[in-house]
Every structure is written in C-alpha cells, then in structure tokens.
What we know:
Elements: H1 3-6, H2 10-41, H3 43-63, H4 65-70, H5 74-89, H6 91-124, H7 134-160, H8 168-189, H9 196-200, H10 208-214, H11 218-224, H12 226-255, H13 261-284, H14 291-308, H15 315-341, H16 345-376, H17 378-400, H18 410-420
Helix pairs in contact: 2-3, 2-7, 2-8, 3-6, 3-16, 5-6, 5-8, 6-16, 7-13, 7-15, 11-12, 11-18, 12-14, 12-15, 12-16, 12-17, 13-15, 14-15, 14-17, 16-17
Amino acid sequence: xxYVSLLRRRPVLVxxxxxxxxxxxxxxxxxALAWTAWQRSGAVAMGLVVVVESLPHLLIGAFxxxxxxxxxxxxxxxxxxxxxxxxxxxMPWLWQSLGLAGVMAxxxxxxxxxxxxxxxxxxxxxxxxxxxxxRQVTGLMxxxxxxxxxxGPGSAAVLLAFLPAERLFWVDAATFAVSxxxxxxxxxxxxxxGTAPVLDRWEEAASADEKEEAVPRALAxxxxxxxxxxALVLSGVGEFFSTVLTIGIPIWLTSQLHAxxxxxxxxxxxxxxxxxxxxxxTGNVALPGRFLGVYCLVWAVRGLLLAAFALSHSxxxxxxxxxxxxxxxxxxxxxxxxxxxxxxxxQRLRVFTADSVKLHVASxxxxxxxxxxLERAPKASFAAAGxxxxxxxxxxxxxxxxxxxxxxxxxxxxxxxxxxx
Length: 421
C-alpha cells in the first residue's frame, strides 16, 4: 500500500497532518529558543538548554514506566498538548519575568511532555492499520521529519522576515492546538493500548502477571526479543558517531575545502533530498532478507560512507557522499520502528521508550565528547568514527547470527529477571 492509499484513511490523514504541522512547529521552537537564549543569556545558555531538555527523557525513560503507560492513549496525549500550548505560548513573557533559571524549569516541563508524547505516539501509530501495513504507516510518519529538516529552516526564515524570533513560540503553540484537537478526535476513533485498567488497580487487585503484561520492564521485553535489543545497541553506537557528521560537515567545509555558508546550505539540501528519497524507497518497498541482517549491513555501509568524508577533496564529492549516506538513514529508522511496531501494544510502548532514552544518551554524550576532537583533527575524526560504526555493524551482524530464531515469551523473561534480582 502506498502513502497515498494510507492517507485515504481518515485517522491516518488526521494524525499525519497534525504531526507534520507539529514537527514544523518544533523546528520553529528550536530556532526561537536557540536565538533567544543566545541574545539574552549567551552561548552557555544554548548548551544548557539542550542538556536540561534531555534530562526528563532519561529519568522518565529509566524510572517512569507506569507514568508513560498512563499516557498511552490519544485522549491523554491531547491533555499533554494542551499544557504545551500554554507553556510555549508564554515563553517570551517567561524569559523576561523569570530569567534563565525560571526558563530552565519551563524547559524541563516541555521535555517532560515530550518524553511522554514521543513513545506513546510511536506505540499508538501501528494501531491505525493492520499488521501488514505497519512499515508503510511508519514510513509515512517518518517522512514529515525528513521534509521539515530542510523545509523547516526556510519556512522559519520567511516568518522571521515579518516576525521577531520570539513570535515563533506562538506559531509553535498554534501547532500544539491543532495536535490537541486531532488527538481528541482520534481518542474517539482509536482504542488505547490497554494499560490503564491494570494501572487503575495496580496496588489492589492486579496480579504480578497482569502488571508485567500491561507495563513490562524494558529488559524483559528486549530479552524476549533479542534481535530488537541487538538493533538498539547498534543504533546507539551509530547515533553516537553520527554526531561527527552533524558537527563535522561545517568544520570540514571551512577548514579543508575553504568553503563558506553557501556550500554548507548545499550539503544540507543534498542530505534532505537524500533522506526523502530514502524514505520513499524504504516505506513503499519491501526489503529482502531478515530485519537484523539488513539493519546491520546498512549501518556498516553508513560507517564506510562516514569514513569516506576523510578522503573527499571537493564540494561535489562531499555532496555525493552526504546524499548517499542520508538515503540510508530512513532505511535504518523505519526498519527498526516497524519491527518494534509489530510487538503487542504495551511491549512496543516500553521499547519505544527505551529507544528514546538511547537516542538522548547517545546525543548528549557525543555532544560532550566529539566536538573538541573534530576541531583538532577533523580528518582523523571522520575516519575513526566511520571505522568504528562499520565495525559495530559487522560485529552486530555476527552476533545476530547466533541469536535465537524464536523469541522468548515476555512473561518468562520477566520471571527470569525478577529471579536474578
């Protein structure tokens, strides 16, 4: 089934339109926040915002499995979106009235809302279609991110020609309003994941097996599905070293090729186009072979392409490598999310939460460790990061061949984990 066919289904269309607007709003929010932090509090505040926003993701992902399960319905997510309408819309006033410390507290609140919304929404999306179309609907939701990465900044630039940066907060608040309305409607059409009844009687009547079935532990689910666990570990390693590409491209262009901002814009455009092409191919074409083998192979190739930047000597070579590498990104992303999306509702909610934690840990740690190395030795950084990613892909592929073909039931894995404790 193509994306166009999926969009003929009203629930899918409503969610996709709402999420596309929301992702655009997030791009506006990021730009407005970075610009306002720079103008009013300096460069240190910009870095502090990134770290503070990630903390709720880590804490809730690690210790808040019952809290995340409480919001595993569109109606609950509508309430979360309503909170963000007020908070984001008030950001210009909050910065003037509360100062940097007060704004950091607000950023924690926004990060908390995002930590609840992200995994829950990812877990609810597969419920919009039958099991044979999870990959396609996953790709459809993914393409919004791909499009807005290069359309978002341009749209923001157009708005900034008529509005001060602080007004972009209001634009983002308006997109939250649209999402909240869409979630209210979807809440009447799409059932929740089935965690609420057990949570309502958690301390009273629910048995241990019911608790584990409704709100399973992440380790238990990953032990029951070792191939997904292996893919998450490989993804964490790959995302860590992918920061070399994100930060290293402008450094490489200026220090090695003596190019300017125009060249950087071209590279970003090539990466955006490559990502969209990769999404269209991945979301609409069934890939041969088993999930994990293909997944590991793609990460290994991405590692080799990352290392190839160290051998580039012209802008055309950088453009070709960047576009090719970006084409492979949706293949990894959609394949992993589709594999998780095929799990039962409570299990996929827990694994999507673990995936969010992994992404933020990889992002934060890489941002702390890699920029200094890139600035001192960009060529060696590209080569080492690419080689490490390729080796990780090869090792994961080797490990994948030894994993059990049949998953262990989650209940059995949960009992094993509890026994070890």
